[in-house]
Amino acid sequence: MNNYCIDLHFEWSPFVSDYDPYSAPIGHSKLNEKYISPEFFQCIDSLGLRLLYIEIFVKEPNYGPGIHVDHGKKDMAKLNWVYGGEDSVMTWYKPKKGSLPKFNVTAINSYSVVYDESDVDLVHTQQIGLPSIVQSGVPHGIYTKEQIRYCYSAVLFTKDNIRLTFKETLNLFKEYIK
Ligand SMILES: [Fe+2]
Fold first, then answer.
1. Pairwise CA distance, residues 4 & 47, whole Å
2. Residue 39 is inside which H or E element, if any?
3. CATH code (residue 136)
4. Rounded CA separation 15/39 (Å)
5. pLDDT value at position 72?
6. Count of domains in the chain?
7. 58 Cα to the center of ligand 1, angstroms
8. Dist. CA 136 → ligand 1 center (Å)
9. Residue 113 domain boundaries
C-alpha cells in the first residue's frame, strides 16, 4: 500500500452500455451525466458520497509529464479509470524547497497549479487501473508512450460537501480494494 494510488475492483462499469470510452475527444472535457451508469451512482450514494463531475483527460502518445496539483486540499482523492494507454504511467512528486508553481485555469474552468519538472522530485510511479483511487492533492503527472490514453476521473464529495483525503477515501472503498 502507498499513499498515491490503490487499485479497486467493481463488478460494474461506470458507463451506460452504449457509451464508448474511446470516443472522447483529445484534451480535457467533462462527461455528460447521461453516460454514467446507475450502478456508479448507487455505489457512491451507499457510501455517503455525491459526484461533482467526471472529467475526461485524453492524452496523445508521447505526452508528459504535465506536472500539476488539482485545486482543493493538500491531500485529496479522485477515482480514475484508464482505457487504452496500457504503456502509460502516472507519476507523483515532492516540490523542491523554494519552487514557485504557476496558477493555471483548465479547459473546463477548474484550477490547477503547474510545476516545472526541475522544481520537483519524483516520489512514486504507477499504472492506473479500472479504477484506482489516486492522490490529486500533491504534484502529479502522466507519461504516455505509444498509445492514446483515455482517463475518466471522478471528483467526489461527501453529502456534507467535504472532499475526503486519500486515506479516508481508501477506508470508505475498502471492500472494493483489489
Ligand atoms: Fe490532476
1. 21
2. helix 38-46
3. 2.60.120
4. 9
5. 87
6. 1
7. 12
8. 5
9. 5-176
